[in-house]
Amino acid sequence: MYIGIDDTDSKNGMCTTYLATVLVERLQDYGQLIGCPRLVRLNPNIRYKTRGNGAVAIQFEEKGGCALRIEDTVVRTVEEMAEFNVPNTNPGIVILDEIPEEVKEFSKRAVQDIISIKEAIDLAGRYGKVHAFKNGRGVIGALAAVGATLEEDHTHELIAYRQRERCGTPRHIDEESVFNANRATYPLTWGTVDLANNTIVFSPSSPCPVLFGIRGDDVDAIQKAFEVIKSEPVGRHILFKTNQGTDAHLVEGEMASVKDERSYILGGVVSAPPRTIEGGHVIFSIAENGHKIDCAAYEPTKNFRDVVRKLRVGDKVTVYGAAKNHTINLEKIEITSLVGRFIRQNPVCDCGKRMKSAGHNQGYRCKRCGTHADTPEYVPIDGQLDLGLYEVPPSARRHISKPLIRMSGNVHPSI
Ligand code: ATP
User: Fold this and answer.
1) For residue 180, what is the domain's CATH number?
2) What is the mean pLDDT of residues 188-210?
3) pLDDT > 70 in the chain, percent
4) What's the confidence (pLDDT) of residue 382?
5) 341 pLDDT exceeds 90?
6) What is the model's pLDDT at position 50?
7) Is any ligand 1 atom within 6 A of the Cβ of residue 90?
8) 228: Cβ–Cβ under 8 A, 6 or more apart, which residues?
9) pTM of the full predicted structure?
10) What pLDDT is attached to residue 245?
11) Using a 6 Å cutoff on CB, does residue 248 contact ligand 1?
């Protein structure tokens, strides 16, 4: 049986992954967990999300006659642990015996698009059992988590939880040991530290029960990093199989059909140069077939903005990111061709002397021999910007964004 759960947490505490971890312990007597529990990141632009729009699913081989007891345990655990008093918390549970194609397709849409509560409840009800609490929105994520088989691509995350009595107090993590763990296991693990910005990024600051999460492609490397990291005592830990770091949210799109709250890969030519606006955000425009869209590297993307600032009108790029207010919030950019880069200089006279301006719109004149020139010189400069893919630093990366270290070709990973 497949059990999906979502929307149990609030900004004040709890975390659906923690609830799933407790549930796995409680279900032990009723059967056998199959594989790792799944942590599925859904459309990162959903306005109702608490943090990273994550939902969880577990696969369970039940002992004969235990199905009802399992369902009862899941419902009781959600009723006991979910933050029901918070208006935006609307838990959902879905239990299916198998994963129909229609549910897999639903799951893909939940990662890339926006889905109604009614569609989710109807579909889940057609194939299995549904428990919708309050307005039932959590059923969307619960069904999507069940349907995410992670066949195309997946990564893993080991989540370490705090001891219960420490929740809400400052976390104690030896930062040096985290950098050591990164040195010992990168690139098989990633997203642990942000070297360019000299900070650890694998631990939340919210009052939730998560102490830290170690992400990567290799389970042994994740385990090794876990052994290297020194911290306050870990209460529980569990390994999730996830769609984090896979870019599953991105759709190859056309500028003309971009919709807000979806994420795209769009090609275009820089049509308005980068400009830095109040707050340190860098904005430029790209155009394609008569359509135009703004692209933004917001202040939290830090050093990524240095790449964006070097773009010139005419450069060809492919942008990756979410659409909001018809602006693409950049997660990655591929620079596919560059126009020439020149600096403008006063021309050099045949006599060898550099000319001076002859006045506004009057060209240039040589002070030594009086020769006149109409136009300045444009001297090519290079070495400013290399072609290839660039990404925001780990501190600004979305859970679902694929780190460039997982991609091949001409990539410039931000470590
Ligand atoms: P955390 O990451 O801490 O678990 P969260 O960010 O996952 O929290 P939730 O509390 O689960 O946030 O809230 C997200 C809500 O949005 C859930 O009710 C979920 O069912 C719903 N949702 C998820 N994806 C979609 C989608 N594509 N369309 C519509 N609703 C969605």
Assistant:
1) 3.90.600.20
2) 95
3) 100
4) 66
5) no
6) 82
7) yes
8) 177, 180, 181, 184, 185
9) 0.92
10) 98
11) no
Nearest CA to ligand 1 atom 27: 110
Q: Residues 172, 111: one domain? A: no
Same domain, 30 and 111: yes
Query: What local confidence, expressed as pLDDT, does residue 383 receive?
Result: 61
How far does the centroid of ligand 1 lie from the alpha carbon of residue 42, in Å?
A: 7
Q: Which atom of ligand 1 is nearest to the CA of 55?
A: 7
Residue 225 and residue 301 in one domain: no
Residues 258 and 399 in one domain: yes
Of the pLDDT bands very low, low, confident and very high (cuts 50, 70, 90), residue 60 is: very high
Sole residue written with tokens 């549910």: 103
Q: What is the dihedral of CA 308, 314, 316, 321, to 10 degrees?
A: 50
Q: Which two tokens stand for residue 232?
A: 């306050």
Counting residues of the chain whose pLDDT is more than 90, the rounded percentage is 90
How many independent structural domains does the chain possess?
4
- Residues 259, 309 within the same domain: yes
Residues 408 and 270 in one domain: yes
Task: Name the residue with the closest Cα to ligand 1, atom 13.
Answer: 49
Residue 391: give the domain boundaries. 251-340+383-412
Q: Which residues contact 13 (CB under 8 A, 6 or more apart)?
A: 83, 167, 168, 207, 208, 209
Q: Is the CB of 124 under 6 A from ligand 1?
A: no
Quick: pLDDT tens for 230-276: 999 999 999 999 999 999 999 999 999 999 999 999 999 999 999 99
Nearest residue (CA) to ligand 1, atom 25: 110
| All residues at 6 or more sequence positions from 25 whose CB lies less than 8 Å from its CB, including other chains | none
CA–CA gap between residue 351 and residue 304 (Å, rounded): 45
Q: Using CB atoms within 10 Å of the CB of residue 381, give its burial: 0 to 12 exposed, 13 to 18 middle, 19+ buried.
A: exposed
Structure tokens at 263: 């994420």
Distance CA 1, CA 95 (A): 7
Rounded-to-integer distance, Cα 321 and Cα 286, Å: 13
